[in-house]
């Protein structure tokens, strides 16, 4: 019995090839880990919980959902909070919980931002700032009206409704931000705009809502540049959120068949928004 081996099938050659394969796989795994770390770090936002202590914050649309959770997040970190919404009874409950959670102070201002004009929006800001002792560090604009049409908007429009929706979702944001500038420049403060993924891309059946959110991103991204051009010390953070599991979001999209797995927690969403705002993420 004899064995005729070529150099390629020799034991030493086979061992060498095996070693190369193992090392190559190890290097590939290391590369994947390094890339994952770098990619993950690019989304990491450093946050010092103490940085919110004593901050004076206004949160609009804060009687339910994301706004309510934002109020709790700021309260948990020792901020002074004023919430703005329509429902007094709900706001009383939120304010009470804010105080229980550790807010230095918590108050509310009743306002119907769907019915206001420029003077009204300014009054809301001035009342809110007065409750904060005349100072303001952070303005969180979160109030919203959703709009979904099962049949879409082909040959389907209502200009009065669209103007009303823009008054809430866009014009009130612009007015309240502009009328907060003097207060925010005193504290080198920031504006946090709660936007939507629908403001970055068109979605079927969401034409009215999506257009109002597109307007938000366009305006505030431009305003940020104007602030820099004029030497303002105010920062603007625009957040882009998806499907958040709130009462209003569920109601406004109940016919859109969004799967349960796509809905995110309002508490987690609020934490991300507040941390991004405090870190002055653009």
Can you summarize this structure?
The chain is of the alpha/beta class and 282 residues long. Helix 7 links the parallel strand 5 and strand 6.
Describe what this molecule looks like in 3D:
This protein has helices at about 10-40, 65-75, 90-100, 120-130, 160-180, 180-185, 205-230, 245-250, 265-280, and strands at about 55-60, 80-85, 105-110, 140, 190-195, 235-240. The chain has a six-stranded parallel sheet with strand order 3-2-1-4-5-6, with helices on both faces. Helix 4 (about 120-130) crosses helix 5. It starts with 10 loop residues before the first helix and ends with a helix. It contains nine helices and six strands, in the order αβαβαβαβααβαβαα. Residues about 1-5 and about 25-40 have low confidence and may be disordered. It has about 280 residues and is an alpha/beta fold.
Shape: globular
Strand line-up of the largest beta sheet: 3-2-1-4-5-6
Tell me, rounded to a whole number, the average pLDDT.
82
Q: Which quaternary structure do these chains form?
A: single chain
How would you characterize the largest beta sheet?
A: 6 strands, parallel
Order of helices and strands: HEHEHEHEHHEHEHH
Compute the gyration radius: what is it?
Answer: 26 Å
Question: What structural class should be given to the helix and strand makeup?
Answer: alpha/beta
| Cα separation of the termini | 77 Å
How many β-strand stretches?
6
How many H/I helical runs? 9
Uncertain runs: 1-7, 26-42
Q: How big a fraction of the residues is strand?
A: 5-15%
Question: What share of the residues lie within helices?
Answer: 40-55%
